[in-house]
Amino acid sequence: MKKNYVLVAAGLGLVQLALFSTTAHAQDTTRVLNSVVVTATRSPKKLSDIGRVVEVITSEQIIRSQGKTLPELLNTVPGITFSGAENAPGISSSIFLRGASTGNTLVLIDGFPVNNASAIDGSYDLNAFPLDQIDHIEILKGTGSTLYGSDAVAGVINIITKHAKGQGLKSNVQLSGGSYNTFKESAGVNGNINNTGIAINVSNTDSKGFPAATDTTGKAGFKNDAFHQRSISANLNHQFSDKFTINGNFQTSYNTGDLPYGAFMDDKNYTYANTFLFAGLGTKLKLDKGDLTFNISQNNVLNNYNDLASTVNYDYASYQKNKGNITDAEAIFNYSLCKQLDLTSGADFKYSSTNQYSSYDTIKNRNSSISSIYSSLFFKSGVFHMELGGRYNHHSQYGDNFSYTINPSLYLADQFKVFSTFASAYKVPSLYQLFSEYNNPNGLKPETTTSYEAGFDWELIKNILSFNTTFYKNKTKDVIYFLDLSAAPYGIYENGNLQNDKGFESELKLNIDKLSASAYIAYVTGALTNENGVTTNNLFRRPKFTFGGNVYYRFTNDFSAGLNYKFTGDRTDEKFNADYSTSIITLKSYSLLDAHLQYTINKHFSLFADFKNVLDQKYTDWIGYNTSRFNFMEGIRYQIN
């Protein structure tokens, strides 16, 4: 441990020296109409040719965010609220894209879907993914169920890990440290040897953290809740010929740490050990006018929670062991039928299973499967573009359902795109909802959403100044909710609620030589109609208004600096009272200001410093839980060759 402190201290000293010697750096454009993206259409297409909203977090932005976590970085994207991103390290957080509930945003790793088959809502914990293993991220906003199936209701987050670049192997080492006794070490090897690409990255993070639960007295001596993460990712690919390639990727994280008993309650003996394991294998055959891809992936999540009996706080022990496995196999066919018409078709099979053991419930060897076929046509003629697609699904429990997409757009004067989308999406019931002690004997249907979207993307000055606005409305029926009962098991999962959400996003971006800047505003509101026909505001932990911006400036080729600001408006949260009733609490708005500094000494050494919550705001994301105050991470990166 002393060695770690010495290495980090040396790096921090170099950072401070650099900060006194020079100043700032520009941010690359993340949404230009001639940019090529893959996630929106499952094939490379320019944003000008598709009528969808796609945000790209580039590799340069990720390099400038090494002091952040993945949830903290995603929380800076317009339209995304990553509630709990600033909670104690390792505490679960919730992603809300355009106001949709957690579990309604599909997460991909290199295009392969990942979920947690043992979770109540099926959502994947993005705290499991170290930022230093990611090359860039594509975020599709809006319904994506036609091409991606279940869970792509509000959008899709595609995490593209680091892949081989250039001939010959290159390696790097990064050391960093900062607040809450947090230290991180990472290393990577990257490059091509003839026709074989290799990218391997490992990282280790240790943090003593801070008390996760709020001590209302300030005198109870709540413990610091620590966090430890060991992670490795590997990408291998081989090009057998000009037409045939094979690629494999592997990612695993082992997270351990401490937990509080709950809101406002400490627990000296509550620990967790969570393992995330993902592996994917893909092949691609190039055709004269397209390509044929086969993918198969395995995604396993093992969550272990253990709370020893305590004579101080609580007099009983509890445990929970949840294991979820998902196997996914898919074939994707992309083909250019003619100059004006492209086709994307596919077939997918996903098998999910879980075993869950705890002090209060057992779910043993439960599973479900879903089979799908889908097709989308992409038409292009002059200024007019159109996507027309559909997907048929068969689920082993509830049967059949269908989703569709109608997405026309116009691209005018080589700088103005106007678009609209009329589409449907769905989310299948989780294995917990289907098979826990709270299962409904009559079965459950999928939640189904009808989505309406319209907007424009306008490059006011080509490649320099752009402005975009999107309006959306989502109507969801058969929302799954928990119905309280007066007798054991005292509740069941039921379909029946209706949910209506609507909102808009606007963003202005500037990119001039050494300067880049952006400003945005997002608004979302929603209503939930329960089984009794009572309409309530359902957006717990989700603000109606968020706005913010960032600015980066490059004074020299070696040094960059930037500021990121976000305002999060009032939200509501549920407080659980001692008598088991609940109260609705309003959480006050807050502002976060972060700063980043980066200096390149030479082709081998670079330094960075991230300062978060510079204004030292005291605020609450989850009632009864603490958030981080002013904190920092500083580090040094060494490119070996």
Structural features, described:
There is one protein chain. Helix content is 6%, strand content 57%. 46% of the residues are buried. A hairpin with a 2-residue loop joins strand 6 (105-109) and strand 7. The longest helix is centred in the N-terminal third of the chain and has 20 residues, at 2-21. The protein is mainly beta. The strands form five sheets. It has a 22-stranded antiparallel barrel.
In a few lines, what is going on in this structure?
With 641 residues, the protein is mainly beta. It has 5 helices and 34 strands.
Key descriptive features of the protein:
5 helices, globular, 641 residues, mainly beta
List the helices and strands and how they pair.
Blueprint: H1 2-21, E1 36-37, E2 45-46, E3 53-57, H2 59-63, H3 70-74, E4 80-83, E5 94-97, E6 105-109, E7 112-114, E8 134-141, H4 145-148, E9 155-161, E10 170-178, E11 182-193, E12 196-207, E13 227-239, E14 244-258, E15 270-287, E16 290-307, E17 318-338, E18 341-358, E19 362-381, E20 384-395, E21 399-412, E22 416-427, H5 431-435, E23 447-461, E24 465-484, E25 491-512, E26 515-529, E27 535-536, E28 545-553, E29 559-568, E30 571-576, E31 582-587, E32 590-600, E33 605-612, E34 631-639
Parallel strand pairs: 6-9
Antiparallel strand pairs: 1-2, 3-8, 4-5, 6-7, 8-9, 10-11, 10-34, 11-12, 12-13, 13-14, 14-15, 15-16, 16-17, 17-18, 18-19, 19-20, 20-21, 21-22, 22-23, 23-24, 24-25, 25-26, 26-27, 26-28, 28-29, 29-32, 30-31, 32-33, 33-34
